[in-house]
User: Fold this.
Amino acid sequence: MSPPVRVLLVDDQALVRSGFRMILEVEPDLEVVGEAADGAAGVAAAAALRPDVVLMDVRMPGLDGVAATERVVAAGTGRVVVLTTFDTDDHLFAALRAGASGFLLKNADPDELVAAVRAVARGDALLAPAVTRRVVERFAAPSGASFRPELVAGLTERERGVLVLLARGLSNGEIAAELVLGEATVKTHVSRVLLKLGVRDRVRAVVLAYESGLVRPGDGG
Assistant:
């Protein structure tokens, strides 16, 4: 049996931390290993505890969640899911630029919170298709910019096809249906794409797909 996913809670509201702890610790495969009430304490706790996933509030006194995320990611002491009460682009893009692997609203259902922690622990990025499109619009090379095809030059034709579908925001199951492949096969292709591109999650792969010119804003779905 695999060891449980180790989770660190970083939020300045004790009631929020308590609620998240109650939701997560019901699950046998999840374990809350620590809590912190501000960004600086969260960075220190991540360094000491080495959690698999850090649930990080975006608005905290002192060092905010975005700056704390950047430090945790740079130190390699946990994958970060940023939490906020507002689905705003400023928070979203700042968090992703800082290296967050996911973005979740605090009013998400308990099942969504649990699924988010598991997904990020597996190495997946936590972005819905609509959010992926917003990421692309903000991060990708603007119209008329110089694209860099060498970024995806090492991919096979099949891997390029998988990357194009990733850039459209499709899940592994949806890619499998589109390409008439098994989901396990698609997962293997996605893993190889990430490895060859030298990125740690789907979000960065999508950005590279656009920066390379493999896909462009408005392509596909």
